[in-house]
Amino acid sequence: MKKIIKTVFAFSFIIYVFALVMLLFMGGRGFTFTDLSLLEYIKSSSNFVPFKTISTYIQAIFDGSMNADIPIKNLVGNLFMFLPMGIYLPFFIKKIKRVGRFSISMIVVLFFIEVIQIVTRRGSFDIDDFILNMLGALIGFVIWKTNFVQKLLR
């Protein structure tokens, strides 16, 4: 039974990573060819102010200043996009048993993804995306640590 679970996890992880790459790098946003240098592009398309986007979206939900689907999809999507990583990472990397190691690993992964998005101009660097992705991954890690999941894997 344990071998079947590992096989299913491995297969589902491959599908998850493929979907993640498609969402993050191929998600309908064409390459941005501009005359801007990389530094100018980073300045014009990045958000380094924590909770700026999040608070804008939350305010828009309450005051109706934009279609509610946009902020909800953005907030919930970023929150849940990395929730599975909170389960997969400690499953495949046995040294990641504690929240500290998990957090450091996820910070590295998320920072790497944000940098690739900005360098390839397939997105922007948004600290709020980083925060929501990290929170989602931590929720997944908490699910991973539950007795139910641990008993399932024994």
UniProtKB/TrEMBL annotation:
TM region(s), chain numbering: 7-28, 75-93, 100-118, 130-148
One Pfam assignment: VanZ
Alphabetical UniProt keywords: Membrane, Transmembrane, Transmembrane helix
Domain VanZ-like, residue spans: 13-145
Family annotation (InterPro entries): Teicoplanin_resist-assoc (IPR053150), VanZ-like (IPR006976)
Official protein name in the record: VanZ family protein
Origin species: Lentibacillus salinarum
